[in-house]
């Protein structure tokens, strides 16, 4: 059954609606970054850049790094954008744009997030790297899809130990792809468990003028433990990336540059240099 024009929107030039990409322009290895300007900070290390496409906050460069074809794409901030990007990435490789039907043989992409994050544990140093073993969603993205709920035991422990308003969505928990994660587990990379929330200020218990509804949220997160597992950091995309990748059959891992420590109040004095170091680390691990 062909997918209706209203559900899968293909531009007149044959590219997918938001990303503006055509199927042949996407590599099987994809790096995601939040900031559109960070796309060129990754692709500047490519030996060859084949494709440069941009629309709204979604910018993509596809090229070759040490004989590996890689695409780097900006998602913008938040899991609402992750929903768009991951559905369209999947359509590019798993839907025939001519017949508008799902292919008989499905392809699995390797998707690596290079992002920034703030630690909630005082012993996690700023200017370090952290691999998210789990994404803990305080957003609602996964709940909009038919699924088995992810790690229900972990999610139940989060609900029991971290009190939030009944108006908020129930947390969900999804793990990274263990095989893909192995490529990045070196002495430079620590492991952690990452909460994804829907905003940077109130949802992460920051106060400027507005009073956060959950005033001790970060303290509750820092105190959480389940089977000797602790929560390490906060950001805005990882859980959505893990949820969508798991549901669509792709392999994903989220790598974090720790710029801030919310427990100690520190912030990196060299954020750009740290992100650049993580970019090179990631590229070299991909091709290793």
- Number of alpha- plus pi-helical segments: 7
| Percent of sequence in beta strands | 25-35%
Main sheet makeup: 5 strands, mixed, barrel
Order of strands across the biggest sheet? Answer: 7-11-10-8-12
Indicate the percent of residues in helices: 25-40%
Based on secondary structure, the structural category is: alpha/beta
Oligomer: single chain
SSE string, helices as H and strands as E: EHEEEHEEEEHEHEHEHEEH
List the uncertain runs: none
Query: What is the average per-residue confidence, as pLDDT, rounded to a whole number?
Result: 96
Radius of gyration: 19 Å
Task: Give the N-to-C terminal Cα separation.
Answer: 41 Å
What's the number of extended β-strand segments?
Answer: 13
Shape field: globular
Outline the structure in words.
Helices cover 26% and strands 28% of the residues. The protein has helices at 36-43, 79-94, 152-161, 178-182, 217-223, 238-248, 271-287, and strands at residues 29-33, 48-55, 58-65, 68-74, 95-96, 101-102, 110-119, 128-137, 172-175, 189-196, 233-235, 251-261, 266-267. The strands form 2 sheets. Strands 7-11-10-8-12 form a 5-stranded mixed barrel. A hairpin with a 2-residue loop joins strand 2 and strand 3. Helix 2 (79-94) packs parallel to helix 6 (238-248). It contains 7 helices and 13 strands. The mean pLDDT is 96. With 288 residues, the protein is of the alpha/beta class.
């Amino acid at each position: 059954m062909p997918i209706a024009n209203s559900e899968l929107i293909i531009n007149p030039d044959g590219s997918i609606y938001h990303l503006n990409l055509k199927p042949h322009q996407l590599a099987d290895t994809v790096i995601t970054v939040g900031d559109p300007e960070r796309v060129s900070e990754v692709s500047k290390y490519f030996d060859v850049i084949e494709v440069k496409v941009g629309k709204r906050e979604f910018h993509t460069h596809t090229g070759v790094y040490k004989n590996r074809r890689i695409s780097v794409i900006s998602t913008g901030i938040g899991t609402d954008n992750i929903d768009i990007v991951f559905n369209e990435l999947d359509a590019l490789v798993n839907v025939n744009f001519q017949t508008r039907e799902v292919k008989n043989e499905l392809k699995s992409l390797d998707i690596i997030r290079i992002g920034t994050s703030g630690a909630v544990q005082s012993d996690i140093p700023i200017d370090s790297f952290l691999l998210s073993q789990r994404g803990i969603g305080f957003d609602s993205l996964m709940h909009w899809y038919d699924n088995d709920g992810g790690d229900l035991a972990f999610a139940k422990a989060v609900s029991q130990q971290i009190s939030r308003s009944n108006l908020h969505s129930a947390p969900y928990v999804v793990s990274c792809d263990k095989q893909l994660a192995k490529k990045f587990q070196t002495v430079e990379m620590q492991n952690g468990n990452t909460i994804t929330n829907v905003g940077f200020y109130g949802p992460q218990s920051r106060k400027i003028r507005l009073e956060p509804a959950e005033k001790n949220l970060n303290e509750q997160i820092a105190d959480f433990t389940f089977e000797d597992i602790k929560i390490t950091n906060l950001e805005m995309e990882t859980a959505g990336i893990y949820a969508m990748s798991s549901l669509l059959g792709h392999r994903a891992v989220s790598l974090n540059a720790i710029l801030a420590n919310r427990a100690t109040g520190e912030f990196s004095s060299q954020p750009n240099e740290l992100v650049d170091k993580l970019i090179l680390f990631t590229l070299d691990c991909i091709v290793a």
